[in-house]
Amino acid sequence: MKRAVKPSAGWRPQYPTLRALLLCGTLVGNAAADVSVPDRGKAPPGHPVPPATLRGKQVAPQPLPPGLPPAPQPPPRKDEK
Amino acid sequence: MDVALVLTHDCNLGCSYCYAGEKFRRPMSREVMSRALDLAFADGDGRVQLSFFGGEPLLEWELLVEATLAAEKRGPVQPVVTTNGTLLDEEKLAFLQAHGFFIGLSIDGIKEAHDATRPTRGGRSSFDGVARALRLLVERKGWFETISVVDPKNVGFLGETVRWLAAEGVTRIAFNPSYGADWSDEDLEAWERGYREAAALYVERALAGTPIYINCVEDKLVTRVKDGYQPEDRCKFGHGSAAVSPAGNLYPCERMVAEDRDGSTDIGQAARHGLAAAPRLAPLGSPMRIGDVWKGIDGRRMLLDAQCGPVNEECGGCAVKSRCASFCACANRAETGEVGLAGGVQCWHEQMALRVADEAGAALWRARNRGFVARVYGASI
Q: Which residues 268-297 of chain B have a CB within 8 Å of chain A?
């Protein structure tokens, strides 16, 4: 039976995005300074791709929405002083 | 460039949903293999993913070994093989492990599910053979994932399948929807029940500290975490990757290779190989062919680029478009016949999978499950 494409009105997932976590400073340790999203989700099903723990990619810095405090900055590294 | 070598069109199974076309023995020649590796390493750009596909690639084991060793001499390589497992033995696995292979084992689930869709070409059960391969991979700690095609013939066993695979010791489970099949409303209900069981297992294992990867859950969680699929997540489809047919023709994806022989033939290849070879060469008119290993990728890739999408007008107003995998050209083509046109089954599937995954994500976030955060966010809290 042929089925039609039906756009979704959406819903609100009850867990945060990485960007939201960065903005509220929830991430600790080195995570906020050096966070990368695992490369999972990359391959459509049926195309095996090795788990990409070594292929994580940096999250590009995003401009903060107006009115929100800046995301916490990591302490400077020793070699940057 | 990443390349997938289709070592042969031949296969010892006769899967009901197979998109590879007629099975016939035509192994890749050494010349094609060598040219394909030339192409793979031409740009000298980091590690090359070298995938082996078919037909059943282990039918051409010697060729697989030769290609692997030859590739390693040329540069850093990440080898991958997709196999039905029936020919896998200890010796072959030892080679694959020694050379760092990631293995995709095609198994459609418990015996009833597997036998419904993946019989031998003679119509007999192939389950015992693949189950033996599965046990071997688990016992020898192979680096692998299972790939189970979800089809109306086996969808009723989905929940049992995911629990059985996990109980067998599999830690990476991938489901591969057969979008082109004829899906009834009852089938779709069974599909959602199966995914809910998979999600329940995903949550259960995460909370127990023994996490398991299930693609229909975790891949969708990641799309939430990183604000949708990013441009680099889309399949390369001939940009930085190509599939090589046994005859040496290039396709944007291994799923597009099919039989690689009908229609008119490429005059250029016939001239190089002699007219006697012409009938086994790919058609110029094949809409998915984008070149060959002698000349490289040609302008036909650009024609395909222009067709990729999704181009559906309906998708413009969809709130979850950024998390939808309808960019997958081969999935679109399987359902609608067009690489850029998403179909209704895929649309339904993507929305269903996202909802189910989001419920799992919410449960794990409420529990502030550290393993979940580490796996999906790549961070700690």
A: none
Nearest alpha-carbon partner for B237 in B101, B354, B333, B143: B333
How many H-runs (helices) and E-runs (strands) does chain B carry?
13, 11
Contact B292, B38 (CB under 8 A): no
Confidence class of residue A72 from pLDDT cuts 50, 70 and 90?
very low
Least confident of A66-75, B137-146, B296-305: A66-75
Task: Dig out the tokens for B32 from the structure.
Answer: 């094609």
Residues of chain A in contact with residue B320, where contact means CB-CB under 8 angstroms, are 8, 10
More confident residue, B60 or A77: B60
**pLDDT tens-digit profile of B228-269?**
887 767 776 777 889 999 999 999 888 888 778 643 334 344
**Which chain B residues are closer than 8 Å to A13 by Cβ?**
224, 358, 361-362
CA neighbours closer than 13 Å in the CB half-sphere of residue B347:
20
| Nearest of A51, A46, A44 to residue B151 by alpha carbon | A46
* The pLDDT value given to residue A75: 54
Is B24 near chain A, with CB under 8 Å? no
ipTM score over 0.90, yes or no:
no
B239 C-beta neighbours (distance < 10 Å), count: 13
Asked if B6 reaches chain A (Cβ–Cβ under 8 Å), the answer is no
The rounded Cα B139 to chain-centroid distance in angstroms is 24
* Contact between A17 and B227 using a beta-carbon 8 Å cutoff: yes
User: Could you tell me whether strands B249-251 and B2-6 are parallel, antiparallel, or unpaired per DSSP bridges?
Assistant: unpaired
d(CA B84, CA B73): 28
Alpha carbon distance B68, B37 (integer Å): 10
